């Protein structure tokens, strides 16, 4: 593996850990309500400190990849709150536009678009996996709203689009995200 691919994979892995911890922190009450294992429940208030540490390490290794993935995750996570007014006094869509603009300025349009496509794909596929638990929690994710098959096909189409846009970045990012996904599955088995 070349040095650039290795650093991109490591950055994507660390950034994925930061995103996972942040997501679990935000979802901790809902996950507890349905009995879903959540990393932040085990780490407590330290979850956000670890998330910041992982993101800082990822940015130190490969700022473009890690920041684009984190910004894209922020924007994709905002999809259900686009009209809501946030603590910044902006709506979700306004914050999303600012974050996309910042990501484009810092990482370049191609990397930011790649990250947005890739993270959207992961979100749609994850919604298929989480459909039953989200439905129990009263959460209507995309798979609940539009159907699992439609979300899975949409996710695969977005994965292919991200691969087409930047095949060289696709492999390390896919490897990093997959590593965290399988680590998450393994740790959840242990924590049960």
From TrEMBL:
Transmembrane regions: 47-76, 97-125, 163-183
Superkingdom of origin organism: Bacteria
Alphabetically ordered keywords of this record: Membrane, Transmembrane, Transmembrane helix
Protein name listed in UniProt: Uncharacterized protein
């Amino acid at each position: 593996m070349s040095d650039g691919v290795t650093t991109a994979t490591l950055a994507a892995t660390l950034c994925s850990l930061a995103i996972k911890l942040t997501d679990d922190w935000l979802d901790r009450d809902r996950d507890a309500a349905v009995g879903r294992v959540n990393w932040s429940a085990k780490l407590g208030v330290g979850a956000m400190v670890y998330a910041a540490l992982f993101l800082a390490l990822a940015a130190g290794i490969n700022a473009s990849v890690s920041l684009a993935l984190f910004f894209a995750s922020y924007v994709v996570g905002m999809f259900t709150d686009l009209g809501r007014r946030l603590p910044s006094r902006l709506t979700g869509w306004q914050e999303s536009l600012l974050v996309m603009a910042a990501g484009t300025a810092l990482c370049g349009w191609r990397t930011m678009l790649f990250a947005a496509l890739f993270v959207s794909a992961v979100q749609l596929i994850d919604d298929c996996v989480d459909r039953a638990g989200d439905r129990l929690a009263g959460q209507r994710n995309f798979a609940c709203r539009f159907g699992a098959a439609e979300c899975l096909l949409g996710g695969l189409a977005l994965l292919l689009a991200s691969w087409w846009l930047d095949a060289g970045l696709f492999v390390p990012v896919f490897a990093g995200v997959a590593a965290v996904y399988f680590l998450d599955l393994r740790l959840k088995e242990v924590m049960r």
